[in-house]
Write a structure and sequence with these properties.
Blueprint lengths: L6 E4 L3 H12 L4 E4 L12 E5 L2 H5 L12 E11 L4 E7 L10 E5 H17 L8 E3 L6 E5 L2 E7 L2 E4 L3 E3 L6 H5 L12 E10 L2 H7 L6 E9 L7 E7 L3 E9 H7 L3 H10 L1 H7 L3 E11 L11 E2 L2 E3 L8 E2 L4 E2 L1 H21 L4 H13 L1 H8 L1 H7 L2 H18 L10 H12 L2 H14 L1
Parallel strand pairs: 1-2, 1-11, 2-7, 4-13, 11-18
Antiparallel strand pairs: 3-6, 4-5, 4-6, 8-9, 9-10, 12-15, 12-16, 13-14, 14-15, 17-18, 19-20
Helix pairs in contact: 1-3, 1-9, 9-10, 12-15, 13-14
Amino acid sequence: MDEKFDCIIVGAGVAGLAAAMTLARNNMKFLLIEKGEFPGAKNVSGGVLWGSDLAKLVPNYWEEDAGWDRYINHRRLTFMDEQSAFSIDFKSSHFNETPYTGVVVLRSRFDRWLADKVQEAIDASDHSMDSFIAPNILVEEILMDSGKAVGIRTGEEKFYADSVIIAEGVNNLLTRQVGLQDKYVPADHILTGVKEIIRFDQKVLEDRFQLNGKSGMSNEFVGFATDGVEGGGFLYTNRDTLSIGLVLGLKDLREKEKKPHDILNIFKQHPIISDMIRGGEVVEYSAHVVSSGDKRLIPEKLYKSGLVVCGEAANLLMNAGKAIQGMDYAMRSGILAAEAIINAKNTNDFTEASMKKYQDALEASYVMKDINNFQDAVHLLHDPVMSRKMPNLICDFGRNFFSIKTEPTQKARKMLGKAVKKHSSYWELIKLGWKGSRAL
């Protein structure tokens, strides 16, 4: 390992592994460093990996019974008050077609599987003896020389390379060390995610959620799910478990002096949730800090001479109400980062101008186009009218609309008017509708 690498990748999450796969297939000599005992060991997150980039990295992955748990063919968005739930539900056989548009993954298993695929690509490359996946190593410093990244330091050891890809995750200490991320991040730009994995007999899970084969469901929740704290809830069906949890505003949690785990327990006791998880066994609890999806948290520059930043380290995440997107952004940014490094190697140009091509490609990709286009939707989702009043209004209307009583039935418009008067106002709804029409 004394020789200089073409590239050193810091972090073997989705972004780092996507970058490594791309480098390996282009006969680049690289070192992929992971602080966990194996890729995925330190990653407690999971959820849905959207998009088709996985099929580019691992063609025909759906033919393997490994790595991923289920594909999504059932989407549900649920508004909740204290006792009720009103859902927008969509299921389509179009989602059964491969490559799937979304697959449910548990990262500890998925990352390890993808790392094995990277190793296969290394073994098939011209540098099968010179490229490495090195776990259980903590990178403490990016080595800089005259403003250019030239390698990394871990303890007393130093490793050198023409370029460095930072894919260290949301706790982006190295990104800050090189001066690309502000030292202070406003608390209202940060969320904390809490999640439990609940195990079932697989047949019970499939019967309860109407799953067929490896089909799966994703469910997002707005309203009472968060006990008045900014944020939302989620539920994903894994192979024989459920991932259920909340994403909560760090600032709002602090100001209201509430604890994430207590709110999660309240969420689980809601009638609709308690029915979903009945009879399951909690086998894992985890917490994870994530970006709010506000693009102001993304560093203005994601590059320096010989260096680029991708994935969660760049705070590439968005929740505009339709889905929580992060892993797909990480995968695409990792691929684009590697392509920029490959181009730099081919031209022997690792200057800032060369590295800027990565950010230019990212800006031209769906990642930044979506983040830029749907910022209003991100902010709308956290509007108190949308996150608190609207779920109560919808559930109140639904409760009256679907109740059949031995008395004259009111017209739906009158029921809606009463719900609006009780929980909001027409003026608030008009403003919300206007914001929504612009946001979406």
